[in-house]
Design goal:
homodimer; alpha/beta; Rossmann fold; six-stranded parallel beta sheet; 19% strand; elongated; DNA-binding; DNA-binding (chains A, B)
Chain lengths: 340, 340
DNA sequence: TCGACCGATGTTTACGTCAACATCTCGGAG
DNA sequence: CTCCGAGATGTTGACGTAAACATCGGTCGA
């Protein structure tokens, strides 16, 4: 009945306003906000009431300043425009949110130097408690001016990193794909690779090669791609002219899709004349034509684990272990035994 | 030569540490940091040197507390797992970054009440200067406890909102698609709709209907979908049994892809027996089989404009105008004249 | 009955920065 | 030679919160 007038917007309601309204001290308000200690239920209710009627919202900046904690995780990625990155970010955001943390996107500026485009970022202000680096590049980490005192978890990195690494088990996935094709009876398996700048792509390629070698099969030259459907299409155009190729392992589903397109255009039948395996298991992959056999990776697990490890580091645990998330092969209709 | 020892990590370097090292006052450090005023070049250099050698980073919380500005934009979205949302977020992040702002993902918690799942979010703490709502739901805005004093821009909203709205011109896009099919000589066009909870989906449907009516064509019943390939596949299964259907406008590319799959499985030829148009123009769409005719929407423009408008609001301009971004039709191989 | 102890609440102070104001230096005009 | 002003730099005091410490009743056992 008192503060009804919605006249001029007061600036901001602070804890002391609430305290005055509830007839308690600021400190008690703080305790109620943080669900702390024993505050007498009656007092608590009185404070709560005052908070809602005044529309009080704790000032996060002040809180962070005082406590030194931002309850915020920073994420560094080059681009959101890839299926994997997006899914990973989604999972990270969800996991962080469950722990009552917020996710902020830390900008990465591209820089061209000596012909190579590298990333250069100056995280000039510390406003995060931890950082997840989801970056895909031949990136010298020194190019990113990272805070020294903030825990960091890295995805898609060389294992050489001293930081904790969380990643899909690229090697296992590529082996699954390659072995599947060999098991079907193909003499060997060709590979439509991802960009050399990606650690994931490199590991998939290495594992494909190792699997062939372990089976004593010839290792054909690699088709170089860059994750895109158009690079897959270009590779597909080469493949359709070479009847001796009966099986291809594509570095990701988009590349596989591009190959499928070339096959359609030139009448190369899949899987009768050519078996194709992808990697990622995008939601669309089961509707490609034919539905794509592919390696499913669990982006959700990767995102969730990276937050778990990061939070442990933030909480002070030293030397958190790196973690590898297994994949599984999803067999659909793009693979078959070679024609006799 | 002096501070070489990397012994124990000091806590944080503050402006006063820098001031001491450079032999100036904190205020001068602050001036240098903000590139302000006239600071004697010699002094400026001295301070800069001290900053780098000490590894000084301004404390963003303190800065925000003092200035009341966070240099941060909050983004509210249900899920990142849709092509459009992801692209929009990417564009928003880029635009914000160009203006030296950071983007944070504000979590939205799902809540089920009375059988309907609604969003409930308590943005309990204000830590953003403005908010972009990219939400797709029959959402009573009161369900989200938004700060009252923060500028907001809405995407994918009913036009009824009093807030500034930025969106793709859904109506124009749907008209383009429908008219294209009519122009090819189809008697009428069927529609594989998106979920009713999406304003975009509803507007595409309305415009499809209006276009048919304006052309004096019969308006067939709507196939109800939910953006996914599997709903498109389900719709496709119905279509393949009905030879009288010669043209379909799908609410998005995924739905179209599902329809294509059903056509392949049951030998309904596209575009000879059925013309299909999508909406979005995903990067994969030109590699579908056949390459998909679709409506291209410019997510980049939507993201960029939303930030422009939001920033203007933050800067104090009242009543920012809503904006509609045009689409364009991309004709590929999934559409043709009906067979005579 | 009294003192110790415990739970509930209040008081003080510092977190790091920036705005406002104060001061200081130096050159040039009168 | 003095005074004034402009530019350079320093000092003080919030911003809103939470940690540390202080205080104040009341309960319970000896």
């Amino acid at each position: 009945m008192s503060e009804e007038s919605p006249v001029a917007a007061r600036r901001t309601v602070s804890a002391s306003d609430v305290a005055r309204a509830a007839g308690v001290s600021m400190q008690t308000v703080s305790r109620v906000v943080r669900d702390l200690d024993n505050v007498q239920p009656a007092t608590r209710d009185r404070v709560r009431e005052a908070m809602t009627s005044l529309g009080y919202r704790p000032n996060r900046a002040a809180r962070a300043l005082r406590s030194g904690r931002f309850r915020t995780i920073g994420v560094i990625m080059f681009t959101l425009s890839s299926y994997g990155n997006m899914r990973t970010l989604d999972a990270i955001a969800e996991a962080a949110s469950a722990l009552d943390h917020t996710v902020t996107l830390l900008p990465v500026h591209q820089r061209t130097r000596g012909g190579v485009s590298t990333a250069f970022t100056r995280l000039s202000e510390q406003a995060v408690d931890g950082i997840v680096i989801v970056i895909e590049a031949n990136l010298d980490e020194t190019e990113i001016d990272l805070p020294t005192d903030v825990p960091i978890v890295v995805l898609d990195s060389s294992r050489a990193s001293e930081r904790p690494v969380v990643d899909t088990d690229q090697a296992q996935g590529a082996r699954l794909a390659t072995q599947h094709l060999l098991d079907l009876g193909h003499e060997t398996v060709w590979h439509a690779a991802g960009p050399d700048s990606s650690f994931s792509a490199r590991r998939r390629q290495e594992s494909w090669r190792a699997t062939l070698e372990a089976a004593g099969r010839p290792v054909p030259p690699v088709f170089e791609g860059d994750w895109t459907t158009s690079s897959g299409y270009r590779i597909g155009l080469e493949i359709v002219n070479r009847p001796e190729i009966t099986a291809v392992f594509a570095a990701n589903d988009q590349t596989a899709l591009g190959i499928l397109r070339a096959c359609h255009e030139f009448g190369r039948r899949v899987p009768e004349d050519l078996s194709v395996v992808g990697f990622d298991d995008m939601p669309e992959s089961d509707s490609f034509w034919p539905p794509l056999t592919t390696v499913h990776q669990s982006f959700d697990d990767v995102g969730r684990l990276s937050i778990e490890i990061l939070m442990a580091e933030i909480a002070g645990s030293k030397g958190a272990a790196s973690t590898i998330v297994p994949t599984r092969l999803v067999v659909r209709d793009s693979t078959a035994a070679p024609r006799a």
